[in-house]
Amino acid sequence: MTSPFPWYxxxxxxxxxxxxGRCKQCIKERDIKYRARNKxxxxxxxxxxxxxxxxxxxxxxxxxxxxxxxxxxxxxKMNPEKAKARQRAWRAAHPEKGKAWxxxxxxxxxxxxKAWRMRNPEKIAAWVKAxxxxxxxxxxxxxxxxxxxxxxxxxxxxxxxYIAQMLSFLDQTMEKMKD
Length: 179
Ligand SMILES: [Zn+2]
Fold this sequence. Notes:
Layout: H1 24-52, H2 54-67, H3 69-78, H4 80-93, H5 95-104, H6 106-119, H7 121-130, H8 132-145, H9 154-157, H10 160-176
Helix pairs in contact: 3-4, 6-10
This protein binds zinc ion.
């Protein structure tokens, strides 16, 4: 049966038509759906390409980061977990660079390690408890390096004031060494 008002779209009821006679509203909806479907396809295609070209992606990212340090830092701040994971992965992939950096920045590294230890006594205590042999080996090595020196009984001496002074000293040392 033909509609008594053929200018009404049977599907959506709209009256606006293109000169060809097709319903404007329906075409618009179809285009939106088409674009959404293709966006998803495009997303999958990109993800697959990235999976197959990890090295290229890595290099491109590194290049982008080198060219846009402010943007890269801003991204890191917005994505702290991902940034940390990236740093960890980088360090794991470049152990020699970490070693070289530490060798070239011995003082800074020592200050950093000391500050970390001061801030994480419970982690140190847990590690000592979990690694009695290594602890003994470390202590023996310390004794061998420092004949006659008493073992530093850090925990007994540490007052809050001492810790605060030490941390502020270490932070200042690191600040001065900033490159
Ligand atoms: Zn329509």
